[in-house]
Amino acid sequence: MSFGREIKRRLQAAVPPLLFLALAGYFVWSATQGERGLKSYAKRQDDLKLAQQDLQRAQAEISVWERRVAGLRTSHLDPDALDERARAMLNLSDSNDVVVPYGQGKRLY
């Protein structure tokens, strides 16, 4: 009987530390692998960098288009922008222009 009591006593002494280790292990795993863990944080940082690069490209494209549109405003008409638009709409070219013919249905714009 004393052998059974000794095993029972040791098991009762071992259970709380094992529960604590299991709980600590869960939190460590969650801190590194979980939804809000370190790996997810690194991935979100990479996604943020990509989004910022996309934003910079979009802002650059917006500034180019704003500059082109500003050249066609009635208050200030840029002769180069007007000439470009007129040639594109009338399908004309200048004698100094280089013309590259494209097949039918293969338009650039």
Task: Describe the structure in brief.
The protein has three helices and no strands. By secondary structure, it is mainly α.
Provide the structure class: mainly alpha
Number of helices: 3
C-alpha termini separation: 93 Å
Q: Give me the Rg, rounded.
A: 35 Å
Give the averaged pLDDT, no decimals.
Answer: 85
Which range best describes the helical content: under 10%, 10-25%, 25-40%, 40-55%, 55-70% or over 70%? over 70%
Elements, N to C (H/E): HHH
Shape label: rod-shaped
What's the story with the biggest beta sheet? none
Tell me the fraction of residues in β-strands, as a range: under 5%
The strand count comes to 0
What do you see in this structure?
The chain has 109 residues and is mostly helical. The chain has helices spanning 2-33, 38-70, 79-90. The chain has a domain at 1-33. 71% of the residues lie in helices and 0% in strands.
Topology of helices and strands:
Layout: H1 2-33, H2 38-70, H3 79-90
Characteristics of this structure?
single chain, 109 residues, mainly alpha, 3 helices, rod-shaped
